Amino acid sequence: MIFLTALFGALVGFAAVYIIAQRIRQKYGLQADVSRRLQKFKDDTAEKAAKSAKRAPRRVALTLADIPFADRTIKPLLEMIKQKLLSFAPTDIATMLERKIMLAGKKGVWHVNQCVMAWIGSIAACAVVAVIFFADNPELFLIQKILIGFIGAVVGAILPFVVLNSIIEKRHRQIRRQMPEFLDLLCVSVQAGLSFEGSVSKITARMKGPLIDECKQMQRDGAMGIPRRVSLQQMSKRCDMEEVYLFTASVIQSERLGTSLAKTLETQAMNMRERHRQHVKAQALKAPVKIVFPLVLFILPALFIVMLLPIIYNTLQNFNM
Predict the structure, then answer these.
(1) What is the rounded average pLDDT of the residues 52-81?
(2) φ, ψ for residue 107 (rounded to 5)?
């Protein structure tokens, strides 16, 4: 009995020692494995960094002489002058120029700061030219020269807006001329079974012009996730024309009410062609009024010379006789 008890105690003690030894081995063995892996990762990282340092070109610190003269002197000076001049320009001028750039279809091509600088440069250039042309006249007083310089500055301030308005008017004429054909093609495409976006894609792939550019911008807005209603409203704002407003409003209303888009586009195409016809008639009726000025300035003087010169010559000859 004593032997069995001693044997059982020995087995229990052996089992306890074995379990403790296993726990110690697992604990310290795991720590050693982790330490080994960390050391290997550090060695690999150091080796890669050394290889990269060997392959990378050695950076040489740039001195002031290595920088071109234009980059270190002229460009900062021009930027400083630009910022100083822009501080004198009213905020309303920048806002108005931004809107006119958008209406001219030059958004992203022309920048507001550049246009403001051109406007200020135009004022200064016209004032200087006016003073130079009239400064040598000794008969003019100082106040008259100052007034001439002020008139030149006013002309320089108006001139850029006149050019910009002429560009906008030319773009509006092109859109108005292209609108009936665009709506006819869009109506036919929708009636053939294409969707609105598919019809616009087909038309923009085969036509060119400012209206097509605006439609492409509308497609890009739709591809970015902007709803059709919002993209159409943005298109009408970029064009700022009654014809485009009517077209976009009819498409938005058709989408909201669930009516037939083909019938809506057909009605708009007929309406737009009629409006274009009336606009052409109005332009034709203005022709007699517009021809008065060249008639008075160029044609009538030539007729007077041709008709009256022989009479005046004969009259002078008779008086001499």
Answers:
(1) 61
(2) -65, 130
- Hunting for tokens 């200064």 — which residue is that? 124
- pLDDT tops 60 at residue 30: no
**pLDDT score, position 37:** 65
Cα of first residue to Cα of last residue in the chain, in angstroms, is 180
Q: pLDDT grade, residue 64 (50/70/90)? A: low
∠ Cα 157 163 166 (to 5°): 135
DSSP 273-307: HHHHHHHHHHHHHTHHHHTHHHIIIIIHHHHHHHH
Nearest to 175 by CA among 267, 278, 244: 244
Cα gap 29→191, rounded to integer Å: 78
Residue 208 CA to residue 205 CA, distance in Å, equals 8
Cα atoms in the Cβ-side hemisphere of radius 13 Å centred on 107: 14
**Two structure tokens written together for 130:** 């006016």
Residue found under tokens 């400064």: 135
